[in-house]
Design a protein that fits this description.
Strand order of the largest sheet of chain A: 4-3-2-1-5
CATH architecture of chain B: 3-Layer(aba) Sandwich
Number of helices of chain A: 5
CATH superfamily of chain B: DsrEFH-like
Oligomer: heterodimer
Number of domains of chain A: 1
Number of strands of chain B: 5
Strand content of chain A: 15-25%
CATH superfamily of chain A: DsrEFH-like
Helix content of chain B: 25-40%
Structural class of chain A: alpha/beta
CATH class of chain A: Alpha Beta
Largest sheet of chain B: 5 strands, parallel
Radius of gyration of chain A: 14 Å
Radius of gyration of chain B: 14 Å
Order of helices and strands of chain B: EHEHEHEHE
CATH topology of chain A: Hypothetical Protein Ychn, Chain: A
Number of strands of chain A: 5
Order of helices and strands of chain A: EHEHEHHEHE
Distance between the termini of chain A: 24 Å
Strand order of the largest sheet of chain B: 4-3-2-1-5
Number of domains of chain B: 1
Shape of chain A: globular
Number of helices of chain B: 4
Largest interface: A-B, 20 and 19 residues
CATH class of chain B: Alpha Beta
Strand content of chain B: 15-25%
Chain lengths: ~130, ~120
């Protein structure tokens, strides 16, 4: 029987934790489990920064998340409070905060901790990376 | 609604864990989700009295933990072993909590559907 999962990604994209989160998410979906939401928190939010260009011999984490989102319509939520501190914003927030640009990658959506609460409170499993 | 345990295991100030942990905890409590707060290892240092965070431009932890009461967060637990290792007296900490032996710690933690660690 399939179970519903929420992932919370706190790890910086430069750490193995962030890569493990992606691997785990992929494995969940391939094995027919339900992945309700991936919530990016703390340094994990850097995964949704569109202004990254990893070296050609390194994994492109952002592209891989976007691919997963496109294939499986997984909800990718970037915590807005964590992002404001770290400099990842969508056009609306950039305008509101009078910032010079926006950089939230396609496929990701800014959301509050409340969205994490409501989805994780219903999920069978919460996994932290 | 699944209940949630938040574990604080890192010392304050060196990284943002202490702030972002309590943000997450309070957000969950504000939705009336049953939550508990566990302190283990260097996480117990968050609860020392007489901190002077303003000298390093850090947030005042005692104010943050003062909110626990307001949000009706009463299930607070300390790891006895970690207290002993650090020579800390649970009576002298910023908040009141129940001291648990390693065995009781895992039994208590097992009562929670979900766990996050900061």
């Amino acid at each position: 029987m399939s179970q519903s999962f929420v992932l919370i990604v706190n790890s910086d994209p430069q750490s193995q934790g962030a890569q493990s989160a992606l691997k785990f998410a992929t494995a969940l979906l391939e094995s027919g489990q339900i992945l309700t939401q991936v919530f990016f928190y703390q340094a994990g939010i850097y995964a949704s920064n569109s202004l990254t260009s990893p070296a050609s011999d390194e994994a492109n984490l952002l592209e891989q998340w976007q691919q997963l989102h496109q294939t499986h319509q997984v909800e990718l939520i970037t915590c807005v409070a964590a992002s404001l501190r770290r400099g990842v914003v969508d056009p609306e927030l950039a305008q509101q905060q009078q910032l010079t640009g926006d950089n939230l990658a396609t496929g990701f959506r800014l959301g509050g901790l409340g969205e994490f609460v409501t989805s994780s409170a219903k999920a069978d499993k919460l996994i932290q990376f | 609604m699944k209940n949630l345990a938040v574990i604080n295991s890192s010392a304050p100030y060196g990284c943002s864990n202490y702030r972002e942990s309590i943000d997450l905890l309070l957000a969950n409590a504000s939705y009336d989700r049953p939550v508990a707060l566990f302190f283990v290892g260097d996480g117990l240092y968050q609860l020392l009295n007489n901190q002077a965070p303003e000298t390093i431009e850090a947030k005042d932890i005692s104010k943050m933990f003062g909110l626990l009461d307001l949000y009706d967060i009463e299930d607070i637990y300390f790891c006895q072993q970690s207290l002993t290792q650090r020579n800390l007296d649970p009576q002298s900490l910023l908040v009141e909590g129940e001291v648990l032996s390693p065995q009781q710690w895992f039994a208590q933690l097992a009562r929670y559907d979900q766990v996050v660690n900061f």
